[in-house]
Automatic annotation (TrEMBL):
Pfam families: HTH_3. PANTHER family: HTH-TYPE TRANSCRIPTIONAL REGULATOR, METHYLPHOSPHONATE SYNTHASE. Keywords: DNA-binding. PROSITE patterns: HTH_CROC1. GO terms for cellular component: cytosol. One of its GO terms (molecular function) is DNA binding. Residues 14-68 form the HTH cro/C1-type domain. CDD domains: HTH_XRE (cd00093). The lineage of its organism: Bacteria, Pseudomonadati, Bacteroidota, Bacteroidia, Marinilabiliales. InterPro entries: Cro/C1-type_HTH, Lambda_DNA-bd_dom_sf, TransReg_Diox_bact_type. This is XRE family transcriptional regulator. The keyword Iron does not apply.
């Protein structure tokens, strides 16, 4: 899997988890102290998230970082 594909899959995974919990992009961004535009880029796969970014998102969504990175079983 190429880096760009991986970024897109991680972004999709974050979006699916966020939506499954009924959280808007705006609310998740606020909880994580991000700009909504940055979260939007992350979910679209246009940015490479840092470990600390993934940690903040995982805490806000009450999932593990590994759940965010579970792109092999997610389609």
């Amino acid at each position: 899997m190429e880096i760009n594909q991986l970024q897109i899959k991680i972004g999709e995974r974050i979006r699916v988890l966020r939506e499954s919990k009924g959280i808007t992009q705006q609310n998740l961004a606020a909880i994580c102290n991000f700009e909504k535009a940055n979260l939007s880029r992350l979910e679209a796969g246009r940015t490479n998230p840092t470990i600390s970014t993934l940690y903040k998102i995982s805490q806000a969504l009450e999932v593990s970082i590994s759940d965010l990175l579970d792109v092999e079983s997610y389609n």
